[in-house]
Design goal:
With about 250 residues, the protein is an alpha+beta fold. It is about 30% helix and about 25% strand. The strands form five sheets. The chain has a five-stranded antiparallel beta sheet. The protein has a three-stranded antiparallel beta sheet with strand order 1-5-6, with helices on one face. It has a three-stranded antiparallel beta sheet with strand order 2-4-7. β16 and β17 form a beta hairpin. The radius of gyration is 17 Å and the shape is globular. The model has no long low-confidence stretch (mean pLDDT about 100). The structure holds magnesium ion.
């Protein structure tokens, strides 16, 4: 069942979304070559707590971090680690969620560190644009498949791979609600979008090939090709005036 949020609930989701976004941008601003992903996670954790939220991911399904931090070929669900050092030339995907007053936010961004090669920078630019294109389809009367199709068509035009095993989702009092929002699909298919629905749209794109592999830690997901991957995500509300980004940073 897809829930429709009231005006008051949307306001609460916007508060959680704002903190999620601020934590993400704060985390991005703190990335430095030489630090561990554990140290970066700690900074994000403290930021969320200091600003009145709870890290949504901490303990979710047993996850041992406040943010998912995924380097290079790792596309999602990277567990922060004291043994993983960020280097110049890496791309770092941070995925943060903050819960405030029982409501969740969810967003992600891939940050380049120092000197990153042109091919990889293009991947980031295209994935970020794919998110924007997907969001533009999130209007009342459209269907989930319109978002999926728009993302797929744009990403495929560059010859990139799309991660199909993971997808966007509804957001509310819990992190993952109906509907699923895949990054590939057929226009005009799937649930109809209505004002009051809140969804996370999150293209996950690989420079080469769709195939992924799960790491032995049971969480991290990498491209099977070993090629770099990018992931951008926003939580948005569908309104009669169009999509409203709830994970909007104010710092
Ligand atoms: Mg998500």
């Amino acid at each position: 069942m897809i829930s429709i949020k009231s005006k008051t609930e949307l306001e609460k989701l916007a508060v959680a979304g704002r903190l999620s976004a601020n934590a993400l941008m704060y985390g991005g601003s703190m990335i430095k070559a030489g630090m561990t992903t554990y140290e970066l996670d700690k900074l994000i954790h403290d930021y969320i707590v200091k600003n009145g939220g709870t890290p949504t991911f901490l303990g979710y399904g047993g996850f041992k971090g406040s943010a998912c931090i995924s380097l290079n070929e790792k596309v999602i669900h990277g567990i922060p680690s004291k043994h993983e050092v960020i280097k110049d030339g890496d791309i770092v995907t941070i995925d943060t969620g903050a819960t405030v007053d029982g409501w969740c936010g969810d967003n992600a961004y891939t940050f380049p560190v120092g000197k990153v090669n042109e091919e990889t920078l293009k991947l980031l630019e295209v994935t970020k644009e794919a998110l924007r294109i997907g969001i533009a389809q999130a209007v009342p009367g459209n269907r989930v498949g319109d978002i999926s199709h728009a993302i797929e068509e744009y990403v495929r035009s560059f010859g990139y791979g799309i991660v199909k095993e993971y997808c966007g989702h509804g957001v509310g009092r819990t992190l993952h609600e109906s509907p699923e929002v895949p990054n590939y699909g057929t226009a005009g298919k799937g649930p109809r979008l209505m004002p009051g629905m809140v969804i996370a749209i999150e293209p996950m794109v690989s420079l080469k090939g769709d195939a992924i592999r799960q790491l032995p830690d049971g969480w991290g997901v990498v491209s099977k090709s070993g090629a770099p991957t990018a992931h951008y995500e926003n939580t948005i509300a569908i309104t009669k005036d169009g999509p409203e980004i709830l994970t909007k940073a104010t710092i």
